[in-house]
Structure formats: structure tokens, C-alpha cells
Amino acid sequence: MVQQQVVAVALLIEEQVVDKALQPAIVSGQRRLKGQLIPQSLAQQSQLPQALEFRYLRVMRIAVHPSAQGLGFGSALINEIKGYAQQAGIDFVATSFAASSNVVNFWQKNGFTPVKLGFNRDASSGEHSLVMLNDASLQAAQQKFVQQVSAEFYEALSCWLADEFSQLDYSLVMKLLAIAPKSSLPPITARDREKLLAFKNNANLYRLARPSLARWLQVYIAKISVAQINIDHGNVDQNSVGQNNLAQENLAQENKAKLLAALKPLVAKCLMLHQDADVCQRFGFTGKKALYQHFQQLIKLS
């Protein structure tokens, strides 16, 4: 509260399936209980009955007064919710919402991890529903569960982008790839580097290099998203202080955004398998030659 006025509110619901006799039917999708969104959806996707047994505190709604938005009250309320959940013995704080890059960014900044993206678009919002979890218990078993379901989600996402999510908003795709846990990223082998270098020198080798390019792209997006990268100006000096430091940080963020934007055509082509003509039209390239030259210029192997 600010000067005795409410500025942020949240609607919460606790979810848990305690009847083990129902677990097989729920996991197989033959049975669905009302009011148990998170445990049931995670159990069905992961095929792990243990997902039903955890206690979840789902944030159904969170709202901040318009005059108080952008001041950190939403994040402060989330922190209070996480503290309450830990004291109450809750395993996870969870949320499910119509996914957009801005909303994903809010929850990710508050310690939540993507674990499930719905295949069907919501009838009212027109967006896919994303489930994100925060480990409120700080216990090893719960941490292992989040790591497992998140890793499996990202492993599958790299395949789903070419089919089930091929029409997903590019900004949302980039955001999801940018916050991928390090443990979920594919390894880049010496052979991958050789194939990437071959494509960098010869655009006709794109098809042969595409599997390696797809792995490199996922790793590169995640890497630059957590680094202070300054295009054409070298690395930002993190030890500088004062206004100079702030200016450098702002420039780094701006250039990082430019680099991520430059990678969108490659994501569309390499991960989402969009046709060359469609990618050229969407991103303003004059033709396939110009598009592939852009791809070649993006490859960094250092």
C-alpha cells in the first residue's frame, strides 16, 4: 500500500491432485479435474505423475493501478507471494497467461521459468498460453523437477517451432530462446563449427549446415541475451562508473536489441522453416542471395 491506498492486487489459487488413484487417467489425458490447471497440464506434457503431487500456488490475476505501473509494485507483490508460498510449504508458485514477449519478460525477471506452451491459441486472446514456474520450496526434488520439465520443454520447442509453433510471433520466439536455461542448450561440436564455417564461405551449403546452424543459433541467442554486447564498439567496460557507465550500458542494451532483431530472419528460416520468399518479404530482403548473405554475416564462431 502507498499512503494507505491499494496499488497492486493478485488473485491466487492453490492447486494439487491428492488422489493417486486418478493419476493414470489424468496423465493419459482421459480425465481432467476442474480447478487443477497447472498440475494436470504439466503431468500430461511431461508424463510424470509426480507433477500432480506437488503443491502449486497459481497467480490467476495480477494488476497494478495505472498510476503506479512501471515503479516495481508488481514485482514487489510477486516477491511477497513467493515469501508467503515458502512459509506455507508450497512447492511452486505458478502462472499461466496469454504469451507475449513483454509479459514473459516480466515473469522471467521475477524468477519464473517457462515449462509449457499450449499448442492451441486461446479463443479470447488469440495467443498461446504459457506456463511458468518458480521454485518456492528451494528443495532439491523441486529444483530437479523444474530443471527437468524446462529442459524437456526447450528440447521439444526446437522441433515444435517448425510445425506446431511455426506461426508464433517472432518476438515471442526470440524471448523464449533468449531465456533458455543453460542446461537445456545443445552442445556445439567441432564438426558443427566446420560446417558453419563452410556455409559462411559458401551459401550453397545451407541445407547441409542447417542442423549445425540451428544448434548454434539457439546457443548464440541465449549467450548474447545475458552478455553486454556492443556491436561495432567492442565490449562494454563493466568497471566504469557514473554517467559514462550508464551511457555505455544503454548503448549495450540498444545494440544487443539490434543484434537480436538481425537474427529474426535466421530464426524464421532455420528454426521455423519458413520459405525464402516469405522471409524476404517479411524482413525486406531483395531476394534469396541477399538473405543468405545476411545469414553468413551473422555467424560468429569465437
TrEMBL record:
InterPro entries: Acyl_CoA_acyltransferase (IPR016181), GNAT_dom (IPR000182), TmcA/NAT10/Kre33 (IPR032672), TmcA_C_sf (IPR038321)
Domain N-acetyltransferase, residue spans: 1-137
Gene3D superfamilies for the chain: 3.40.630.30, tRNA(Met) cytidine acetyltransferase, tail domain
Signal peptide: none
GO biological process, any: rRNA acetylation involved in maturation of SSU-rRNA
Keywords, in A-Z order: Transferase
Gene Ontology MF terms: 18S rRNA cytidine N-acetyltransferase activity; tRNA binding
Protein name listed in UniProt: tRNA(Met) cytidine acetyltransferase
